[in-house]
Amino acid sequence: MTDEERKKTFLGFDFSTQRLKALVIGEDYGVLHEADVEFDVDLPEFRTAGGVQRGQQRGEVTAPPLLWVKALDMVMDRLVVSGVDFSTIEALSGAAQQHGSVWWSKEAEAKLGSLSPDDFLHTQLATAFVTDSPVWMDSSTSADCRALEEAVGGAEELARMTGSTAYERFTGAQIRKMRRCRPRAYSAAARVSLVSSFACSLLLGRIAPIDYSDGSGMNLLDIHEMKWNEKALKACGDDTLEAKLGTPVPTATVLGQISPYFVQRYGFRPDCKVVAFTGDNCSALAGLRLRSGWVGLSLGTSDTLLLGLRAPAAPPAGHVLLGPTPAAPYMALLCFANGSLTRQRHRDRLAEGSWEAFNHLLRATVRGNMGYMGIYYDTAEIVPRVGAGRWVRDAGGRALQRLAPQFEARALLEGQAIARRAHAEDMGFRLDSSSRVIATGGAAVNKELLQIFADVFNTPVYVQNEHGNAALLGAAIRAADVWSADAGISLPGAEPTVTPVATPYPDHDEIYPPMISRYRQIIETLPKLA
Ligand code: XUL
User: Fold this and answer.
1) Domain check: are 199 and 348 in the same one?
2) 41 and 73 inside one domain
């Protein structure tokens, strides 16, 4: 049988905060198998709550890396039970929670390279880590963030170089705190990985490099030069830090072949390729097949926007990262705290808990809402940083205390879509004729809401319904895409065939650009949070 004829499958992992998931897709990118391990339930011996442990000090949140190692043994066994034929897997890749750091001991590399298939991974790697891993939920590094910003010439300069102002959960500040508060652990670590590159290392049988896209969530990587920024490294560590981190690589890189441990234990082919792992948000961009000029819109408790960018801006809020796929050289991540929960609360207030009644209200109004605009923050907003409150204006810009329910319904949704577009533009996002919005998440079933996004963004809206977890699907898709580019073999699933669920009306230009300007004026007047 030739290479072209052989059945080909691709494996993806997602090391998320609460569970480890794995998924196998075929050549058409359809899902064949899935398995998962829930940390608190399946591995109670680690005593995690939601996959993490809270520390003594306020804001400290960590996870034991051996938990993730043991979970990998378990999820592999569950894939066996679900009938996976590992000999058909051509390549694998993975996603992981962003920002967390894994601190490897001096003997780790040798242990990874000589794993015996007769023993579990977690028993063989019991001494491979010098400390628990600080994760993205940790918020104990405010002092380190300020020191990092100061050392590089201010918050704006840090954002220009690394794509983000300093954030507590970002790895640079976490490394600085480790060196300051636990100098012995800092010195004892031979290498420091992100959760993504750590997970990749287990499958590769050696310590895997950090990829550009997840590496952009550290406040250490120069996103223009694609190498570590010297000033930032110096602010967070000592002369050994660069060697501890290793040289970062493009995310679409085949790093090598799978570790013999997995060949002997599960029957993988020895030439199964390992593609660099990346952060979950980066992987979600790949799972949504986003390109430059496209928007991934995740409508959940909060609304998250993933933007494919051609060039980066220095973001005042949110994060610019190097893109995980050649189709998007850069990406941006924007998280709006007031998403579905806020929509639901106002639906309950205005339409007695019924989306049907709420949508009926919407249909009683017109695009542009006769000039009525509203900003509704039921909880403090992150983008922009403003406390809870409700601000309603009429067409002349006058503040209103009350508004008829049908106008409020439209003001709420148009206000949200306008905010998403305005802040996307601040991140350097530009629409072009090929642009699309790809919606996911619970609220993506609401056609009226998607129509408003289509009109405000002046671009068709599609729904991703292949799989609920775009990061996990993205891991397997990246394995397939990078493998096929490397092997020069095209796969039938590479081009998704979907039809839009909402297309914009032609009157966008008259209605929404002026409203976007008015939105920008209104938020200038709102009380900013520190
Ligand atoms: C992103 C972030 C989270 C984690 C969750 O900046 O901190 O989305 O990646 O896994």
Assistant:
1) no
2) yes
Same domain, 293 and 173: no
CB distance 104 to 193 below 8 Å = yes
Is 1 a residue whose pLDDT tops 70?
A: no
Best residue among 162, 280, 469 to mutate for probing ligand 1, ranked by most atoms within 8 Å of CB: 280
Do residue 79 and residue 169 come from a single domain? yes
Cβ–Cβ under 8 Å, residues 280 and 393 = no
Atom of ligand 1 nearest to the CA of 16: 10
Structure tokens, 264: 């002997």
Overall average pLDDT of the 480-489 stretch? 96
Question: Does residue 423 have its Cβ closer than 6 Å to ligand 1?
Answer: no
Asked whether the whole model's pTM tops 0.90, one would answer yes
Q: Relative to the CA of 136, which ligand 1 atom is closest?
A: 7
Q: Could you tell me if the CB of 280 is within 6 A of ligand 1? A: yes
Nearby residues of 443 by Cβ (< 8 Å), 6 or more positions away: 299, 300, 339, 340, 343, 449
Query: Is position 490 within any domain?
Result: no
User: Are residues 26 and 143 both part of a single domain?
Assistant: yes
What phi-psi label fits residue 430: left (phi over 0), alpha (psi between -120 and 50 degrees) or beta? beta
